[in-house]
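Exercise: predict the fold of this chain.
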Amino acid sequence: MPMPTKGARLIWRERPGRPGDFAIRDTGVEISTGTGDRRQAEIQLAELIARKNRANGPVAADQMTVGDALTIYGEEHAQPWMHPSA
């Protein structure tokens, strides 16, 4: 029986000749956060986990909150329409 996965987590990467940084390790894949600041890395980890846990495809109206709908709209539709100075 295979071992259960540990889930998404932060790891510290030492990099020869460059400053170290945090990366997100999730099911064998490392995603660079591009920062050595733990607080910023934790924010990126939380965003990744929120995206992973979001339902894909149609969702029943009683299963979705207004906040979920606004988040999806902002991520998928509003970005191209943002003001250039924003």
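Check your answer against the key: The chain has a mean pLDDT of 83.
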